[in-house]
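To the wet lab folks,

You asked to see what we're planning to order before we commit. Fair enough. Below is the target structure as tokens, and below that is the sequence we designed to fit it. If anything looks off to you, flag it before the synthesis order goes out.
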């Protein structure tokens, strides 16, 4: 990249031409960028050091849903470039192409290990990189900011559980799920915890789950806290023949929140990053838009409203729960 004068000049855009007017237009304005520059000042002093993001997702290249085949490209994006260039195809680096009859799942760490080894070397620095603009050789270093993926791929890359009782990666073991007995759906009704303390929705019990929300929102775990919790998963054998043993209620152990220790924790700086995994906007917009439109237009198979019989049974169950809470309050 630095052998091209045009690209080499664009790679220092964040220092030479970035506007500092308080508006966020690029990851250069993010807390992760500032943390790297302050915690490792020798890294921040060299504007040519690369800031990268990793993106990965699976797709079927044969365009047939009946074909049992998956392909997982692993792409690196360079954030040194300005926002109108960093997401262009010619500036993306295809580092891995994981293909096969089955999805890699949690075993994706095995395929990522060579890339992690290269990122370790790049973090220490590579001597003898030629800069065509300045006409000199310098030591190039690289840092990986975060991964970009959808929610299922987030579970594979981070090792977090993304379905079931502890499906929220922010609340973790304070997710507080509720299972509807008749529709057999897992719902998460404690979202009002994230509202301001005196928000009127907190007291509108009848409009939600017949309870008044008084709890505060859980504080997201830092990278160091996550690493301390997943250290027990080190040494787990990968492979389809070594599945994760299911959790049993009689084990006297809390429900797990992680499946493994992510391979990204092998990077020395990973545990210090405030944001390690991000969800791509495309999937969130599409899924939310499909759910809202499918429910409003009552599209078969797309609506989030259950059939009338199941809905009545769930409503009856919620009514009985409300009466139970009222009786308990009277007894107290």
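Sequence we intend to order:
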């Amino acid at each position: 990249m630095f052998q091209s004068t045009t690209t080499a000049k664009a790679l220092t855009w964040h220092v030479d031409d970035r506007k500092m007017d308080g508006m966020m237009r690029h990851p250069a304005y993010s807390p992760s960028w500032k943390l790297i520059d302050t915690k490792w000042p020798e890294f921040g002093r060299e504007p040519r050091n690369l800031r990268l993001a990793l993106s990965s997702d699976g797709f079927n290249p044969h365009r047939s849903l009946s074909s049992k085949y998956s392909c997982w490209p692993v792409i690196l994006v360079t954030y040194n470039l300005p926002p109108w260039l960093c997401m262009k195809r010619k500036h993306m680096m295809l580092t891995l192409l994981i293909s096969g009859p089955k999805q890699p799942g949690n075993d994706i760490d095995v395929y990522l290990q060579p890339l992690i080894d290269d990122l370790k070397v790049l973090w220490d620095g590579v001597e003898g990189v030629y800069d065509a603009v300045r006409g000199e050789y310098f030591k190039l270093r690289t840092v990986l900011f975060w991964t970009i993926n959808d929610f299922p791929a987030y579970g594979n890359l981070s090792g977090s559980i993304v379905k079931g009782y502890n499906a929220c990666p922010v609340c973790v073991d304070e997710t507080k799920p509720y299972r509807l007995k008749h529709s057999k759906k897992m719902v998460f009704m404690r979202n009002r915890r994230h509202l301001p303390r005196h928000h009127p929705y907190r007291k509108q019990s009848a409009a939600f789950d017949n309870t008044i929300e008084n709890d505060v929102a859980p504080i997201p775990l830092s990278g160091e806290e996550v690493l301390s919790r997943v250290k027990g998963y080190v040494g787990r054998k990968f492979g389809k023949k070594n599945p994760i043993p299911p959790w049993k209620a009689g084990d006297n152990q809390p429900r797990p929140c992680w499946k493994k220790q992510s391979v990204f924790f092998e990077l020395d700086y990973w545990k210090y990053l405030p944001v390690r995994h991000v969800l791509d906007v495309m999937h969130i917009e599409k899924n939310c838009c499909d759910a809202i439109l499918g429910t409003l237009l009552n599209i078969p198979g797309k609506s989030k409203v259950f059939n009338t019989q199941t809905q009545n049974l769930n409503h009856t169950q919620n009514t009985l729960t409300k009466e139970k809470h009222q009786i308990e309050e009277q007894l107290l």
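Structural context that might help your review: The radius of gyration is 24 Å. Residues 233 and 260 are 5 Å apart (CA to CA).

Thanks,
Computational group
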